[in-house]
Each structure stands twice: as C-alpha cells, then as structure tokens.
Amino acid sequence: MGSLTALLEGFATAAQPEYLLYALLGVTLGTAVGVLPGIGPAMTVALLLPLTYTLEPTAALIIFAGIYYGGMYGGSTTSILLNTPGESSSIVTALEGNRMARAGRGAAALATAAIGSFVAGTIATVLLTLLAPIIADVAVTLGPADYVALMVVAFTTVAALLGSSPVRGPASLGLGLFLGLVGTDTLSGQQRFTLGVSTLADGIDVVVVAVGVFAVGEALYVASRLRHGPVEVVPVGGTWFTREFWSRSWKPWLRGTFIGFPIGTVPAGGADVSTFLSYAAEKKLSKRPEEFGKGAIEGVAGPEAANNAAAAGVLVPLLTLGLPTTATAAVIVAAFQSYGIQPGPLLFTTNSGMVWALIASLYIGNVMLLVLNLPLVKIWVKVLQIPRPYLYAGILLFAALGTYAVNFVVDDLVVLLVIGVVGFFMRRHGYPVAPLVVGLILGPMAEEQVRRTLQISEGDLSALVTSPFAAAAYAVLALVLVLAAVVGVRRRS
C-alpha cells in the first residue's frame, strides 16, 4: 500500500504543468533522435547532460527518461519506412516492417509498432512499480562483498555479450576501468595517471567521456559513412486498423512484453537481445511461418513490444542497485551523479519523491508517445530530410559548448577531442563503447567496495566470495559463461 501511495504522490508531482512540459520535451526529442539514423538516446542524453545543470534533478531526469522511451518508439519509423534502424534495438523491426511498407502495408506496420510499444511500455512500467521497491528493500541488506559480486557480474556480462569478438568487449571495459583510475586516490591522497596535468587531478569527468564517445565519436563515425544523394523513404500506404490487424498483433504484444522486461533487468541483456528472442519466438509460434521474411506483422509487433518492455526493465537495476545495463542507462547514472545522487537501494528512501515522480512520468510519457507517433508520422518522416552535414556540425558544436560549460576549463575540450577520436576508432573497428562508460562509472564504485570489504575482513581475500549472496552470484555467472561457451562451440561445429 505504501508503494501505491507513493506512486499517487508521484503522479501529483508529474502532473504539474511544468513537469508535463518537460515530459513532452523529452518524448519529442527522443522520438526525433530515434527517427534519425545514427543518433540514439545515449548520444542525446550525453549531449544534454551539461545543458540541464540549471534544471532541478526531477525535471532533468524526467526529460532523460522521456528521451529514452521516445528513442525506442522513434527507431521503428526509420526501420519500417527507410530500412535503416535508428537504434540497434530496431534492427529486427526492419526485417519485416520494411517488407510490409514496400507491399503497401506501411500504415499497419507503423500502427502495430506504436500500439505494441504503448502496451508493452505500460505493462512493463507497472512491473517496475511493483518490483523496484521490493528489490530495493532486499538490496539494503547486501554487504560490500555482495556489491562487488554484482559489479563483477555486470562487468563480465557487459564485456562478454557486447562486441563482435570475445576480445573487443573486455578491451573496451578495460579502457573504461583505466579511465576511472585517473585522478587522486581517495585513500592515499596520491595522484594516479594524471601525467602531471592539474585538471586530471580530480579525475576525468564522466560527462566529458559520455559526450566524447557518444556525441563526438558517433558524429565523426556517421559522418565518415554518409551516403550521398537523396534519402529514399517508402510512402505510408494501406489501412491503419483492420480486424486481422488486432487478431494477429495482440498476442505478440503480450509475449514480447514478458520476454523483454526480464531480459532488460539482466546486465547486458537490454533491448537488442530481447528483440531477437521475441522475433524467434514469433516465427516459431506463428500459424503463417511462410510469411516471415516477406512482411509478417507478428515480426513487427513482438520485437517492438520487447524493445519497449526491455527499456523499463533496464530501469530496475539502475534505480535499485545503481547498475547500468545499457549505454543509455550508463549515461543516466552519470546524470544522477552530476546532481550528487547515487542510484541504489537508498534512493527510494533518500529521494523518494523524485523517484516516484520519475516513474509516474513514464506512464504519462507513454500516452504522449502514442499520440505523437500515430497521427504525426508524416512529420517524423520529414525529419529524415534534414541535411546530415548541418545535423552533425550542430551536434559537434553543442558537444563542445556543453562540455566547456561543465567546469569552464579549456582542458576539458582537449579531453573531449581525445575521447571523441578514441570513440570514433572504437566504432570504426567494432569495439563497443557501452562497456567503456560502464567501466568508468562502476570502476571507482567497485574499488571502494573492495577496499571496504578488505577493511572489514582485515585483509582476508576470501571475504569477497564467502557471503551467501556473493557465492550464488559467482556460481550463476560461471554457469552462464559455461553455457555460452557450449552454445558457441555447437554453433561453430
């Protein structure tokens, strides 16, 4: 009953005109960046981080959550009409959605994507509302060694599941952990890896790194691969809603929701994995398997529902444990930290009003997104016509201005440029950038928890693995790694 009361208070806050405008701004920006190929929610949140310091935390986080949800919605428009996923999680939607559009059923594809996103987002937010306080209560009882185990699980799964090879993910994670060591050691007071640069004595700002890899690096990478000539957009054709539309869509919406949400809560699960699993499930359960690959509506409905359900699932470990499981979640953690707020089990106690206003804004944002996506789809198609040189030049300009505004130090611009070039080469050679940001954010936290564990145990290393929760976490991690290796061997054979 306490959670229901807190949620109602959150709605009272989120329904204020000021916060409604912030939610509308967030979902509108999110939809726009989801539509544009190569610009995702992670880049947009990173770009806006320095520009939102004048806002109060609740307003800024409502905007960022709206961008996150809106990006998941908007990616389907580009996938269906352009066959170019705006987000990696929309790749599966392009498989069937673009075929439907080319067959004159683009309206049905856009409708099932939008309504499926709304249904899944709403159900998943209800599950977030119910589960988050329970997990937070359990997380309060965890000790330092248990948090070390959770972070090791996050590090391992993020590094193992992201990247095109077993080496690239851990390499990106290692770079992030190294960047997290730069600065002054809080225990000894000695500087580490600062190269004598006084600006680095306080460490490398997470905001600078996030803007560098997601905005500057991504802009350079996309600009290096720009296609010349006009963008070919398939016209929206066909009927929006028919009886067959509803009969073939509602089950995939529900299945996608309950596939996407639990996978979103797992480190490195996220929307990418859930959409592929949902597509495979729909293909296996379909009464018309021969239509898959030719424009099956189930292949759009299920993955789009899984996509948005996973987005809500990602917020569970973020809010209750402080563990980001996707790139966008990692940048949102940086947003929390920029306001001096640490996501985790105490968040529901120390910042209860802000958290519940954020959750309430997700319900409101879902309704706004449904209204924005169906009637205004032709306007979003016009966004695709923005000249790419102007677009990415603007991104680089705002990235530089926003980074300078963080500390008003020119050295931050040098760090931004270096990190941006590193991000460009990482993207070009297939190194995922999400593990880098996760390592940078969680690395110092993991170091602090390891030291705390060893202080309590008087230097006994076995204390890191002997607690029941930590031992269970490591056992599950080992089992997952073994199963992944077996599956990999079978695929190669």
TrEMBL record:
The DUF112 domain extends over 20-437
Species source reads Saccharothrix espanaensis (strain ATCC 51144 / DSM 44229 / JCM 9112 / NBRC 15066 / NRRL 15764)
Per UniProt, the keywords (alphabetical) are:
Membrane, Transmembrane, Transmembrane helix
The superkingdom of the source organism is Bacteria
Q: PANTHER family of this UniProt entry?
A: TRICARBOXYLIC TRANSPORT PROTEIN
* Pfam families documented for this protein: TctA
Which InterPro entries does this one have?
DUF112_TM
Q: Which residues cross the membrane?
A: 20-39, 45-69, 108-135, 147-164, 203-223, 314-336, 356-377, 389-410, 469-489
Q: What is this protein called?
A: DUF112 domain-containing protein
